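Quick one, T. Sequence first:
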Amino acid sequence: MSGLWTSLEPASATVDPGGSTRVRLRLRNTGDVVDEYRFEPVGDIAPWTTVEPQTLRLYPGTTGTVELTFAPPRTPDATAGPNPYAVRITPTEHPEAVTVPEGNLTITPFTEVRAELVPPTVKGRFRGRPRLAVDNLGNTKVTASVSGSDNGDQLSYDLHPSNVQIEPGRAAFVKATLKPRKIIWFGSKEQRPYTLSVQRSGANPLPVEGTYLQRGFLPRWLATFFGVFLALGITFTMLWIAYKPNVSSGATERVAAAGSTLAPSAEPSRPLVSAPPEQPKEPTPAPAGGGESEKPSGGGDTGAPPPHTSGSSGGSGGSGGSGTSGGSGGGGSPAKPKPKPAEAAGQLIIGQGSNRCVDVTGGEDGVGRDGTRLQIRDCKRTPNQKWQFLGDGTVRSLGMCMDVAWGSKDDGAAIQLARCSGNPAQTFVLSTQGDLVNPQANKCVDAVDNGTGNGTKLQLWTCAGTPNQKWRVQD
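Structure tokens:
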């Protein structure tokens, strides 16, 4: 016969994150045989629980003591508030007679906030647009407001949102627009230091310092260039007025000089140059016995060769035109094909039920945005459909991680893209059966309402083996 009596002392304990506390477990063998007992912590805080010793051998009627040490880390995973725990006690002689004493461990809340400007230095002529990243590293929700200031009130601040609520282990981004109150029209750039402060109730403000580098509207070198260009223009105009050439007189003299150097014309051609225009004549009757017709004036020399200027130039022009046209027609070269852009690294995750790809909503521009919901969409092999399965268990796209919203373990929790933080909610395993499982929740990535159309969102759901929970990867 096997029997066991147990007692936790105390039944409820309190511990600070980053610290430790101990609880004593007393037990008595009320059976009639010698038995050895094995101890195993169970529950959400089991990873932070140590049992010493892990086994204990008791004779009938004897009592033993085991110490439980709880050491939750100072991270957002150590949820503030009461956390139930239990210890499974399994006897060696009678393994079916398992005893599970239960207790309660209260983890105290702590707050830790970190803020960073991205980038710390912005440049511009009329405005600058930095972003303030606020991380909640504590284990409770944080509510904070953001304000800006600088020496001399040289900048104005437009912050959106100016108030944020951040869950444990998450981050919020505040978009800031800085505008200088005075514009620098000419001159070199000026540095304007500023501070964005994160204010929480009952805590000192957290200042984050940055620099706005204001540029001149027109740089100094451009003003110098315009001055030099204007001086050169005035100098050129003055020289032109002073030394302006007499174009008409010079042209007349050159024409006259060219005419005086021409060779004298041949005798038969003189009438073409100096004779007055031919006057119309009355028709003259032919002589009675003449076999010869009257020759026109000036055409007596039949032995003179005919002019060749028209024929020569025509033949030359035709030849030259043909050669030029042929050379011009054959000078083209085929256009070179444009190189294709490099394809993003990673694999497609394709749904069995929809034959569509896991897609980052609105990520066609190749930029990841924290908190963007994932969906299924026609496979286009764009960067927002390429995923990398890394050795740390994360599944990444666009430089961010697949994530269960708010680290939830409930059915219907949104599957989204988030900044990689090492949270267990960002760990996924693709089984050989095609289930994409989040080990923390032990649940599957699921297409909402068995949907197969474009834009169907993804959620966390209890694994059922249905087609909308089956996935495959493809290069």
